[in-house]
Design brief:
Elements lengths: L1 E5 L4 E9 L5 E9 L2 H16 L6 H12 L5 H19 L9 H13 L1 E2 L2 E2 L2 H22 L5 H5 L15 H11 L3 H13 L3 H5 L6 E2 L4 E4 L2 E5 L2 E5 L8 E4 L2 H13 L14 H15 L8 H12 L4 H8 L3 H7 L8 H13 L1
Antiparallel strand pairs: 1-2, 2-3, 4-5, 6-7, 7-10, 8-9
Helix pairs in contact: 7-8, 7-11, 8-10, 8-12, 13-14
């Protein structure tokens, strides 16, 4: 290890050597420190990270967390984490030693988050829950892999609540009014037709390519998802392994898709059929809802509307889950209030069974 001043720039430079986790000897350096103390502090943090000592600062541990986790997560998921870490966690905990952060410190941070405003309004309970979960995930990683004694975020307890179970739905009649309003823009119309009648996630629909359709069999293969990250179009694996599925389309939708594909003259089989963004769809949702005179719902609520329609038609949770790429237990839990109650039928059968 060496720290010395560079006369040409009147700044300090650090050079140090270390053995990494593979046993290989390496050397690292950094220039431009204004003072020797700054250089020494940086050197100490680098050595702590290499040795995985939990006395390092929260900001330094986040670098380890990034190294360990970024490749394991979908790019858009990681981008969401980075935004929360950089704007809500590091400003508060960044310079604190991981081992010194206490449940009391976490409670103080929670109170500060609860007092913050966005566009004049406090953070929603769902967002507060998301912030706490991210903080807890970092400490859990430190406990599991870097010998931190305990997770102070877990001890402090959570704030906020999970995503609201309240969902908005369109009935079939409401959707049909909306669809009529969309017919002046074929690209928008066909995109919403797929979302409503197949129950796809928005990213799944935006990733569709002509080669995903087998119109002879009336199926569409769901195997990827589209994300717009920064200025880049990214096509990734779908949300979960269960999301990879084959969806059978009704005959009228097959005919509509065939008609739409005819308009894509010269379109490559591997080219996105709907070269639009989520913001475009949000704008069209606003326009169509207003024109049709129906309540404005989220685009994701079209998926809920599809599930609601299938429940009303009498399909089981297992069949619906297979179609929309969920676990059946998730369908049962999230949409339990929509399934017809069979309590009276159960009681009657138990009476009969008792008398046997």
């Amino acid at each position: 290890m060496a720290i010395y001043k560079e006369p040409a720039t009147n700044t300090w430079r650090v050079i140090y050597r270390y053995t990494d986790w593979t046993g290989e000897r390496k050397q690292s350096s950094k220039r431009g420190f204004a003072t020797k103390r700054d250089a020494q502090a940086w050197e100490r943090e680098q050595l702590l990270k290499v040795q995985a000592e939990i006395d390092m600062t929260f900001a330094s541990f986040v670098e380890l967390y990034r190294r360990d986790m970024q490749a394991r997560l979908r790019q858009n998921t990681w981008q969401t984490k980075v935004h929360i870490i950089n704007t809500k966690l590091i400003p508060y905990f960044g310079n604190r030693s991981m081992s010194d952060i206490s449940p009391k410190d976490v409670i103080h941070w929670q109170n500060e988050m609860m007092g913050q405003r966005k566009n004049g309004k406090p953070f929603s309970a769902t967002y507060l829950k998301t912030l706490h979960n991210q903080l807890s995930a970092i400490f859990n990683h430190a406990v599991r892999f870097y010998d931190l004694k305990s997770n102070p975020a877990a001890k402090a307890g959570s704030v906020g609540k999970k995503e609201s179970k309240d969902m908005l739905f369109w009935t079939k009649d409401e959707y049909m009014k909306f669809a009529d309003a969309m017919m002046d823009k074929p690209l928008s119309y066909y995109a919403f037709e797929i979302l409503y009648w197949c129950g796809l996630r928005m990213g799944e629909m935006l990733a569709l390519m002509p080669g995903d359709f087998d119109l002879a069999k009336g199926t569409v293969s769901i195997s990827k998802s589209y994300q717009r990250i920064g200025s880049n179009d990214i096509v990734t694996d779908p949300k979960t392994p269960k999301s990879i599925r084959m969806v059978k389309m009704p005959d009228f939708l097959c005919e509509e898709i065939q008609e739409y594909l005819r308009t894509l003259y010269g379109w490559d089989a591997g080219q996105r059929m709907f070269p639009i963004t989520k913001s475009y769809l949000h704008h069209e949702m606003d326009r169509g809802s207003k024109t049709a005179g129906v309540k404005r719902i989220r685009i994701h609520d079209l998926r809920h509307s599809h599930v609601s329609h299938l429940i009303e038609m009498g399909f089981s949770a297992v069949a619906i889950a297979d179609r929309v790429g969920h676990e059946s237990i998730d369908i049962t839990y999230r949409y339990a209030h929509l399934f017809p109650s069979r309590q009276a039928e159960i009681a009657d059968k138990l009476n009969i069974e008792r008398e046997k």
